Amino acid sequence: MDSGVILNSSLSGGLDLQATLESGQTYLWDRDDGEDYRGSGLSGGGAWYSSVIEGRVVRLRQVEDQLEWRSTSDVDGVIRRILGLDDDLDQIMKMGIEDSLVESAYSTYKGMRIVRDPFFPCVVSFICSSQMKVERIFGMQQRLRRKYGEKVRFEGKDYYEYPKVEVLAGLDESDLREMGFGYRAPYVIETAKMLKEDPDGVDYFMEDYEQNREKLTELRGVGQKVADCICLFSLGHLEAVPLDTWIRSTIKTHYPNCDHKSYQDMSQAVRNEFGPYAGYVQTYIFHYLRHEAGRTSNIVAVGD
Questions:
Q1: CA 245 to each of CA 22, 30, 145, 285, 298: distance values in angstroms, whole numbers, following the listed order
Q2: 80: Cβ contacts below 8 Å, ≥ 6 apart
Q3: pLDDT tens for each residue of 86-144
Q4: Quick check: is 253 in a domain?
Q5: Domain housing 150
Q6: What is the DSSP-derived secondary structure letter of residue 256?
């Protein structure tokens, strides 16, 4: 067993672990207390979170001014990459749009970061996100891990890695429908088959943002919105702005000059308005309004 700490003071802009892991970006972490997406404020909590990354159990919690981690081996570098801890949040905040909504979101969830999830789990998670509340998406991915993922034992407890691409590619549609995947079942299986030769998305990391978004839409069940989610939350294109129903409504209300019928036109307008880190701005606004508006039960995921 290995363990370590990362001091908040060593990170530009700090870290809010709960906001990062419970803001609809990632569905790969389990809270020990089972209160995922139910915590008051969705910010600043000190619960333990667990995931299996690259075959290793990783456990995290934030206590006061530091991030504590425990794992089967040294995962300091993995954690920094997955949680975007090298992003210069102070500089990113300065380069974005300045208005009262964004400033309120930044101050309320200071330290929330954009994750860099493993490619294949991110793809499947957001294929499942259409017209779904974040709590349900999380539950679907959790069931998928526990039924088809490899078991890893750590400190007397069993943890489950996300299923490998070849496992999901070999399923029957009925297998996933029985788990509540509905019409998304064939999308997941067909996409797994398409990605069997490149489950880590190596080919995608070699492309620029626009090329990646276009290429991703060739996958079954991946439209422009889901492609933007994958670009932002896995491939690290921090300019990507996933435009779901909720965000489009927000844009229309708060930034009417960016309101366009065409997804492409609105995306470009929002990126011009929000700046080079538009994905960060959008994620802060989404998380802030999702909680502050008191409409948690009615808001669907970014991938819708």
A1: 19, 27, 28, 14, 12
A2: 6, 86
A3: 999 999 999 988 889 999 999 999 999 999 999 999 999 999 998 788 889 999 999 99
A4: no
A5: 119-233
A6: G
